[in-house]
Write a structure and sequence with these properties.
13% helix, six-stranded antiparallel β-sheet, globular, alpha+beta, Glucose Permease (Domain IIA), 3 helices, binds zinc ion, 329 residues, eight-stranded antiparallel β-sheet
Length: 329
């Protein structure tokens, strides 16, 4: 580049400032919504060199650097019983982990009635139940896998163009029989439309599953996993590394689907959470005022008051083991 020394200095200074701004931005965190199926974001204090280890129940939880602070990003299972919980944080150099207490508020999800012509998809026979069990174990292995990478590429990009439904969390009744709640987000799109990776990651599983049809699971790192279902075709294979925006397959209606659409499940520390909370541009539903403070840190010394009565909980208070509701197959 042919420019005088002063201009060159200014150029370098400008470039250095820009780089500083990019690295300072590091992560763009999801919207905190401390309800079943939501996400809780906690400030763990000024960031040192080494990332602290956070755990919720048996699972490791995501910790990312944001505005020079470490932040824990914890997924709350859809079937979590509202009440008081805690997670633990082990900071480098400290002899034992600290407890952070927080309250999970209730959230009412609507009920949806659906008719399915294929009766085996509502009441699977013994052979199918065996298959479902095997497939669930395969998916659970991916959800529970911890890949220690920094930084996690947040926020996520919508994986296919189309209208977002507000179907996450719906209590589902198939042919009059209550079944598991809807643990993903449906995006309306015609068959054949390309589906992209919402963030960089590694393809952790692909296959044709009984309920989900052609499916791709992407491990984004630190316990964050995307699952894309009902695809008409799969364009990746297990072990492939993908960048944000890479095509992984095409929209379809394979498996238990009433028509072509993309079902996108997002799992964080093995909890299926609302993918809307992680998108670039919050859509109206995500912009609604959260039912609890949007982001708060609670220290172990001053326990948060348990304002929710819960017959499943002991009087002693917070739980680290997520309490889950019983659900039908
Ligand atoms: Zn769905």
């Amino acid at each position: 580049m042919n420019c005088p020394p002063f201009r060159r200095f200014r150029f370098l200074l400008g470039a250095a400032m820009l780089l500083g701004a990019i690295t300072a931005r590091a992560a763009s965190l999801p919207h905190s919504e401390v309800v079943p199926g939501g996400v809780a974001v906690f400030d763990l204090g000024a960031a040192g060199e080494e990332r602290p280890v956070a755990r919720f129940g048996r699972n490791r939880a995501m910790v990312v650097k944001d505005s020079k602070h470490w932040k824990a990003v914890i997924g709350l299972p859809l079937d979590l019983i509202p009440g008081q919980y805690f997670f633990t944080v082990q900071k480098p150099g400290e002899d034992k982990p600290r407890q952070f207490k927080f309250s999970v508020a209730p959230k009412q999800y609507r009920t949806q009635h659906l008719s399915i012509a294929n009766k085996n998809q509502v009441d699977p026979d013994r052979k199918t139940l065996k298959r479902i069990k095997r497939e669930r174990a395969e998916m659970d292995a991916v959800y529970n896998h911890w890949r220690d990478i920094e930084p996690v590429t947040l926020p996520l990009k919508q994986p296919v163009k189309g209208e977002l439904s507000s179907s996450f969390g719906l209590r589902r009744v198939f042919n009059g029989k209550p079944r598991n709640p809807h643990s993903g987000l449906d995006i309306a799109a015609p068959a054949g439309r390309p589906v992209i990776a919402p963030a960089a990651g590694v393809i952790a599983a692909t296959g044709y599953y009984f309920f989900n049809g052609n499916t791709v699971m992407i491990d984004h790192g630190q316990g964050l996993v995307s699952m894309m279902c009902h695809l008409s075709r799969i364009d990746v294979k297990k072990g492939d590394a993908v960048k944000r925006g890479d095509v992984i397959g095409k929209v379809g209606s394979t498996g238990r689907a009433t028509g072509p659409h993309l079902h996108w499940s997002l799992s964080l520390n093995n909890a299926r959470v609302n993918p809307r909370l992680f998108l670039w541009t919050p859509k109206p539903e995500a912009e609604k005022k959260p039912e609890t403070a949007p982001e708060k840190t609670v220290s172990g010394e001053k326990p948060a008051k348990n304002t929710l009565k819960n017959k499943h909980q002991k009087k002693s208070g917070a739980k680290n083991k997520p309490l889950r509701k019983k659900t039908a197959q």
